[in-house]
Amino acid sequence: MRVLVCHNYYARRSGEETVVEQEMALLQENGHQVELFSYDNADVEQGGLVERIDAGLRAVYSRRTPQDLRRFLRGKAFDVAHVHNTWGLMSPSIYRALWQEGLPVVKTVHNFRWLCPIGTFYRDGHVCRDCAERIGGPVHAVIHRCYQNSLTGSTVAASRLLLNRDVLRILRRYIDVIIVQNAFVRDLLVEYGFPAGRMTVKGNFIMRTEGSPGVRGDYAVFFGRLEPSKGLSTLLDAVERAGIPLRIFGQGPLSTWVERQVAERFGGEGRVRFEGYAPREDLIRGVAGSRAVIFPSEWYESYPITIVEAMAYAKPVIASDLGSIPSIVRDEVNGLLFRPGDSEDLAEKIARLWQDDDLQARLESGARAIYEAEMTPEGNYGQLFRIYENAIASRRGRRRESVD
Fold first, then answer.
1. Dist. CA 10–CA 40, nearest whole Å
2. In sequence order, what are the beta bridge partners of 335?
3. What does the pLDDT read at residue 29?
4. CATH number where 49 lies
5. What is the pTM of this model?
């Protein structure tokens, strides 16, 4: 099968990039021809005012994307197109362009950007559904300046959602199969009127070459993007209470704040270490040698690759009992759940795990079992191939309907 993958890279890399790259490698390993059509939002940061204005207009609906796509496809043939992120330079115009080229379209939903202009259902330190539930819809994102506290950026994000979802109805018109990463995301989208019949559930995975049980250390690990929605304040408070060693890997808007907090609160003893950005081999070594991974996120995550990586190394995850997380981290099976934002409850869960080796061993076994059952490349490939076949069949059926 010949697969065209479309993805707009974020200016600062995220778990989505890992998912895209792993799926492409998986398809290629199974004998499929795969090519990537992409843009990179980091390019905008190199430009001046004119380039930034142009990028903002393109984010709403890019006229350039169909032109670039036609040039890219010249002399090539694909059986199906798989679209991941379009936020930024690519824009949702890619869907109509692919449709016009006659390609069946599969879309993976990595966040909630079809319901929330910034994709997180999170603002001012709490979960927020105003744009989905209140009169005015995405206008609330402008009122609260949800996108990087910028009136202009928030207006762009809200306009993008209103135009493409409500006016052009792109999701319904030009997408054959919508991949959602768990039932929580599916049910939430269906609740707000999205077509259940086109959705299929498929989680994330990591390649087996990286997934093998490590030794059991005596420290916890946090790794991910350093931003307010990730629960970093709760994490540091809890670790201060629990008195365990912690290593923090990542970068983002809160990098300076986290580094300062670690130095001021733990600097003398070195029990908590801020590693910042680390090469992947160093990160994996840190995860493989830990006792547990802590995932204190305070927004509606979809299917965090962080948790998949922890499961692959048989590491229990102590995670927020929020959104889709309980469907991945099952309390007392492969991890422990705590009340979101509650540092005292998190500290209690940490202390319990550190004091109970039998519980630790049971959760390690559960983590590895769930990886083998749900997160392997073999299982993921089978699902992905069937999804592509369904998209191709769906497009044929919709063509017949349009002719009839």
1. 6
2. 317, 331
3. 95
4. 3.40.50.2000
5. 0.89
